[in-house]
Amino acid sequence: MTPQYKKIFSISIKIAIVVFAFWFIYVKLIANNDLKKFISLLTAMPKSQIWTILSIVIALMLINWGLEAVKWKRLIKQVEPISIWLAIESVFCGLTWAVFTPNRLGEYGGRVFFLSPKRRIVGVVAMAVGNIGQLVLTNFFGAIAVCIFIYRFTPIDHRLFLAVCAIAIGFCLFFIIFFFNIKWLNGILLSMRFTRKYKKFYSILARYKKTELLKILLFCLARYFVFSTQYFIMFLWLIPELRFLDIMMLVSILFFVQSSLPSLDLLDIGIRSVTALFFFKYVTQQNTAVVACIASIWLINIIIPAILGSYFVFKLNFFGSNQRT
Predict the structure, then answer these.
(1) pTM for the full model?
(2) 190 CB burial (10 A radius; 0-12, 13-18, 19+)
(3) Measured between alpha carbons, how far is 117 from 272 in angstroms, rounded to an integer?
(4) Closest Cα to residue 108, out of 129, 89, 130, 123?
(5) Which residues pair with 102 in a beta bridge?
(6) Interval 169-202: pLDDT, tens
(7) Which residues pair with 31 in a beta bridge?
(8) Are the C-beta atoms of residues 266 and 299 closer than 8 Å to each other?
(9) Within 10 Å of residue 232's Cβ, how many Cβ atoms?
(10) In this structure, what is the dihedral angle of CA atoms 270, 272, 276, 277, given to the nearest 10 degrees?
């Protein structure tokens, strides 16, 4: 393929990605009744209060994805050192790809195409390490929250409850031990003949030491704290009678359930709303406010970043090095 054809093909792909993402976003926003409920709730509130709360939540969104960019920079330094700004660009670009791909798989492509071609597949493995770290914390706090929920709201024999707690503890320990020994996965893959020929792509797993993995996990923890705070602010604002500890428990369960279900980012709002209604019914009957909270966070954390990321899609270089045009 000549350079001219490569350029035309590259521009065509970028335009297709952005158009496809915006079309998905437009269709979902138009059909989103939960978001309409959120807007209707705002009409009865003082404008100064609305701007203050939403500004704080949007600022937390930027902090959340900023932390993800710093985490990505640390992860990828084992493969190809990048600047913090390039990390931010790649994170937001990945969010644009994620909105129309199952289980956010497009996010991998949106990021690694900012790397030089020979390092992109290894970059996918590095990104997976960060995602596993986030999953470890989601499962850890989620399992604890489920135990608390069962204890408070489910009539259950105490021996069965202790068994559930034991399973939850084992579940948490498994994920923590696995993450801090992720190099075991490298050994497992090397032991299989048909995967051995791809070792140059996954051998990076052996490079992550426990101290580096701890730092990555701390970034994951900071992100977990930030997006949890967004939910706390919105729920306490729209449903002030809720107790802080109840929100903490139910939000952790919400994250836990979401991480276990396959979905598209744009369809995920329906899953989030159904899940939230099921669990929050134990502490409040304000169903409209519950789905409004979920819809507002979905809009701020997923849709707005995806729109911002569309600008960075045009900075991708599919065929060249990381020196983008």
Answers:
(1) 0.88
(2) middle
(3) 36
(4) 123
(5) 264
(6) 999 999 999 999 888 877 777 777 777 776 776 7
(7) none
(8) no
(9) 15
(10) 10
